[in-house]
Amino acid sequence: MSRFWSPVVGTLSPYVPGEQPKLQNLVKLNTNEHPYGPSPKVLDAIRAACDDALKLYPDPSSDRLRQAIAETAGVQPGQVFVGNGSDEVLAHVFLALLKHDRPLRFPDITYSFYPVYCGLYGIEYETVPLTSDFRIDVDDYLPGRNGQAGAIIFPNPNAPTGRALDAAEIERIVAGNPDAVVVVDEAYVDFGGESVIPLVTRYDNLLVVQTLSKSRSLAGLRVGFAVGSAALIEGLERVKNSFNSYPIDRLASAGAVAALEDTEYFEKTRLAVIETRSRMTAGLQALGFEVLPSSANFVFARHPSKDAAGLAAALRERSIIVRHFRQARIDQFLRITVGTEAQSELLLNALAEVLQA
Ligand code: PMP
To answer: Modified residue N6-(pyridoxal phosphate)lysine is at which positions (predicted)?
Structure first.
């Protein structure tokens, strides 16, 4: 606390990011990065962009990148908003679209940044419990059961559970709330979820947020985007242009465009993660874990008789890091990123050893 702080600063509960360890040679399964590097074409494009143009500011409207995203998503460039990672996109979304007279609604177990943004921007919110098997119940998001929400946001697949709704279920939420913005955070959708981007042309209250950090292996480059009706995008642009920030730098833009264009590499690596997830899930189940069905590049698992914090600590002693949340209902779970096949084997062997001890 300092008497020089603005009053709001003392009230904030900032997000605690997943650890980015300084040690080398750790099996890092804690922050859901892609285990395979980006397409070689991304590296070529970034090298080619390292030219004299770096002395110039980037394109403030990111035309080339928005065009590439629009082509991938099957929408118009005017329906695309870009930012430095989807976290920055979400920061603008909360301010531009989610602050209303009625509370914003989201699940009680979800991406822990949402309440942080609410605190920062003074947005009132209400949380709805997930079902006993950690699913989102669509009816909880319809005015009939819980009244009219000011706006709605949830990830699909949800994080950290990995459980997904299908597009028809999400459409019920969007269609059932014509007077409220519904934001679907699809950070992990390419690993088995069903994107609702095709619905944005039919519903002007739907905004879909995606990232190149996960399925495109570019967490270090910081590129995310939102797709929605031109009116929603214009609201986001107004907020973004009220900061003097350039959304995407020249190198990130070149790399992101190349990643979006290399569909073959994208397919190959995303399918590799899905395959490893199946084997890893079976391996964890064989060790006695209960594993929630995952549509993401991580699994959420608990052991009936072993303490999760203790398991995470024992794995760490063996140079493997996974994520453990000290939150009610989920403090006996571990969230484990799907790594390479070799990393997954190391994880399963280490767990077998720990469980026997
Ligand atoms: N949404 C969800 C649900 C996430 O888990 C993450 C990653 N922590 C993000 C958004 C943000 O990812 P990025 O800023 O790297 O795009």
So the answer is: 214
